[in-house]
Design a protein that fits this description.
Layout: E1 13-18, H1 28-39, E2 44-49, E3 65-72, E4 79-84, H2 99-110, E5 117-123, H3 135-160
Parallel strand pairs: 1-2, 1-3, 3-5
Antiparallel strand pairs: 4-5
Helix pairs in contact: 1-3
Length: 166
């Protein structure tokens, strides 16, 4: 087993947003990341990438809470925020993993359970290359960000063991 240590400056909360800004509503993850960076929430680190890779399991080291943000082609509108559990992907490639597979890779790599994690799936409709973000997706993003920022504030209060914000 590998001995891994988290970066000493790792924020307790990680938001890992995925998506391709050149594919219409698939830009929802990166746009959410950009907005969260602008908010500069203390104790929250924001990373973004086109797709999840096995290496992202290392980004979970030293975290108390993780939120994966991605566009969803189907499902609840305007968004769904739900807990995630580790689960192995049945794919035969180490490219483009699901958030649950990243959690599973963390568990297998470290021998420890991953930090509590959630998926914020923001409903999109148009995913064609070169398409702009749609109006419905933009509205969904606003609703999702309001819920996510509240969720992150609650998570940070729990990390600091403070009373929950009203």
């Amino acid at each position: 087993m590998l001995s891994l240590r988290p970066s000493p400056d790792a924020a307790p909360v990680l938001v890992l947003a995925i998506g391709n800004p050149s594919r219409g509503d698939d830009a929802l993850g990166p746009l959410a990341a950009q907005r969260l960076v602008e908010l500069a929430l203390p104790g929250v680190e924001v990373l973004t990438d086109f797709q999840l890779q096995v290496e992202h399991a290392l980004d979970l080291l030293g975290r108390s809470f993780v939120v994966f943000v991605d566009a969803a082609a189907d499902g609840t509108s305007p968004f769904e925020l739900r807990p995630l559990l580790p689960a192995a992907d049945v794919r035969h490639s180490s490219h483009s993993l699901s958030p649950s597979a990243v959690l599973d890779a963390y568990r297998r790599l470290t021998g420890n359970e991953p930090p509590p994690s959630r998926l914020l799936a923001i409903r999109g409709n148009e995913f064609e290359l070169g398409a702009p973000l749609g109006d419905a997706a933009a509205a969904n993003l606003e609703a999702a960000l309001a819920a996510l920022t509240q969720d992150l504030r609650v998570a940070m209060a729990q990390v600091r063991r403070e009373p929950l914000p009203a």
